[in-house]
Amino acid sequence: MSFLTIAFPEIDPVAISIGPFAIRWYALAYICGIVLGWIYARVLIRSEKLWGGPAPIAPVQLDDFILWVTLGIIIGGRTGYVLFYNPAFFIQNPAAILKLWEGGMSFHGGFLGCVAAVMLFAIKNNISILSLGDITTAVAPIGIFLGRLANFIKGELWGRPADASVPWAMVFPDGGPLPRHPSQLYEAGLEGILLFAVLAVMVRMGALKRPGLILGSFIAIYALARIASEFFREPDPQLGFLWGELTMGMLLSVPMVIAGGILIMVAWRRGTPQHIEKSI
Q: What are the transmembrane regions (predicted)?
């Protein structure tokens, strides 16, 4: 086989430009992910059949929660990147921390920020933390999928060098002369499409009636998908491989597999809450 002869698509990083204002694909991915996730979440909480009764969160509460989770994702994602991936650079250039338009967001940091937002909002509004976490993670793959597409469009986070057995390998603009795996698309498929499909099927099968089951499944499946993708993704140059073939993305995902598995077991053993069983 020979490498794909189609050149890497050179797409303008600015998606929309109105006068001096410009919206980049990177930012548009976050905006669309949050909006589409909010729409899907409203569909889920309006279906009493999925919950075995009224959903534990009202639509108006979901609307308020959007701001909380948006801040959690942005603050957590940027903080995670600063601490996990490039602390030395940001210690010397602290002003660069605020330059979000230049890229540099950590999923693991964004996830922790999202967890904090879920817990604080749930406690403040007397909502089940696990159920709110279920709703949030059921829609999260939408944003992950769009984010990975934005990474591909920007030509960043490319894959490792590929051999001739990978005919779809591409030469990325800043990735050197070697054809590489389009690992951003692998991640979009695994962490976005596949994860969304699995969780959607689980939701339709009644998983929301067991608080924490969707949350735990999201954490575990995402982590496994991320670990698999890391075998094709080039490590960040400032970090490289940490131990043997292990990357930072792999190491940060291992605790997620464990935490997700624990949540799944707890949710399954706890079963369906009694007030839901009586309403079925």
A: 23-45, 65-85, 105-123, 135-153, 185-205, 212-229, 249-268
Annotated binding site: 148
Of 113, 126, 130, 132, the closest CA to residue 266 belongs to 130
Domain range annotation of the chain:
57-127
Q: Which two tokens stand for residue 81?
A: 């990147």
pTM metric for this prediction: 0.88
Distance of alpha carbon 259 from alpha carbon 225, whole angstroms: 15
CA distances from 182 to 88, 171, 230, 234 (A): 28, 9, 12, 10
Quick: pLDDT tens for 221-266.
999 999 999 999 999 877 888 877 899 999 999 999 999 999 999 9
Average pLDDT, integer, range 155-160: 90
Instruction: Using DSSP, state whether 233 is helix, strand or coil.
Output: strand
> Helices in 85-175 by DSSP H: which ranges?
87-92, 107-124, 129-154
54's tokens: 């009224």
Cα gap 42→230, rounded to integer Å: 33
**C-alpha span between 208 and 136 (Å, rounded):** 12
Which of 17-21, 89-93, 189-193, 216-220 has the weakest average pLDDT?
Answer: 17-21
**Average pLDDT score over the chain:** 89
DSSP E strand stretches across the chain: 14-18, 21-24
Q: How far apart are the C-alpha atoms of 247 and 149, rounded to whole Å? A: 22
